[in-house]
UniProtKB/TrEMBL annotation:
Protein name: Uncharacterized protein
Residue spans of biased composition, Basic and acidic residues class: 162-177
Signal peptide boundaries: none
Keyword Disulfide bond carried by entry: no
Transmembrane segments: none
Keyword DNA repair carried by entry: no
Amino acid sequence: MFDRQSKLAAEKDHTIRSTTKDLLAVRAGLQDSEDKIARLDAELQSERDLRIRRTKELSDEQAKSQGRHEAEMRHIAKKAEDVQEQLDLLNDTLSRSRACTQSLLDDAHKPRLRNHATVIAPDDTGQPPPPPLEPIPDVLTRTPDPITKPRSPFTPKSLRLTPERNSRDPTRHSRDLPRQISACLDRISDTANTWHAGAESLLETICRLEAERTREAESRERSERGLQEELAATQEQLRTTQEGLAATKEQLSTTQDELAATNDQLCTSQEELAITKEQLRTTQEEVSDTRRELYRGRETLQDMKAHAGDVKRELEACQVKLKGVQDARRAGIVKFFDAVELLRRRRADLESLRAEAEASKSKHSQALSLSAMLRKRVMVLEAEVESLNRNQKTPPAHAKSKSFFPADTDPIPAACSANIQAHDSLYMELSTSLRSILNSSLPPSPSSNLFPNSSDDPPHTILGSDKVPLTLHPPERPGLSTTPHAPPPSQLRIPSPPSRTRKCSIASLPVGSSVGSVDWPPIGSTLQPSGKIAEQDGGVGVRVSETPSG
């Protein structure tokens, strides 16, 4: 089957190649015919353009010559009109001169009439007498006619004489008049002869131009007839060329029809060949697909076998991991129970620590209250000592050298000494546990002091837990002493009263709370406790202000 289809495809290919060759040959002949037609069209168009250009040139030349002849004829006609006008003017002037001369000749021997009135007796008819005769105008002195211009060549020279020559002398007029008249007539006849000669020359020129115009018209007619003959020949040649072109076009259309039929056969053969090739390709693809599916099935089987081995190995590894995870889970449960037990113990320890912290807070508050009372008492004693010093009017050096304890030479009264001793005995009765609490809660470090290190600060007033204001004098190194004896008088510092005092108001402090380190803030600020063990529901608020003393 494949061999038969291959042979059929080879035969169709051979047929298609032969048909293609014939088609190419027909196309080449058609292209040659089209080129020939295009060449003939180009030649015809060039010939037509040449004829049109020649016709246009002849028309332009004819129009130019006609315009030139018309301009010449207009110019000659204008000249003829001017000559005719001059001849008419000359004839008019000549006739007037002749009439004037004749009248002068007739009246040459008559006496001139003067300008005076002549009385004539009335006749028997009863008619009024005729008017007096006017004087005869002098021809030599009369104004020229408006038609004759003063500067015209037709005006006699006698009419253009000066007033000296044209005076009213009758004797002179009688002698020069015939000579002047004859000279004027001679000049007029010469001028007339000249104008007649010019008119004859103009007429000859007009006749010559008319003859030239006639000859040019005949030559133009001959040229037009030649152009028409050439145009007819060109049209005949064009008609012949068009007939040949029509025949060539018919042949070309026939060839195109044959070519279209051949193209249809070629398309049909190509379609059949394409269908055969498609069938062959489909069969080959089916065979290839079958082979690929078989090969793919083999590969899939091998992959499935390999995958089964991998799954088996993974299952064994997962079983081993599951055992390890179960063991780890048991160990984690044991550790969780141990952690829960440890957490319960830690909570119990935390509760005990909280109770101890509450007790420490209570002890700390008691120590703060006692410290405030002691400082108050110290300040009262200092005030009493100062008052006694002022009363005794002793110098400061002698006062400083006095002993704090009562002696035989001490000027302090016995009552004051008794009060001081009672207070000292009260101070010495503090228990050892309270001293240890005070020492542990208030370490002698600058960062944990309740008062600043500067000894130049003014005294401060503190509102204690019993709502009694206390004035504090900050020492250089504040701290609580654990000795059973009071400090010597030499260590007491009695500062001079400052002009202003700084007050620090402390709010009520609940029992069981504690405060941390407190530093003296600037004036106008509010203090808050910074201790780590301070409760969230209570604290100390300190307001610092400065007021003038007195």
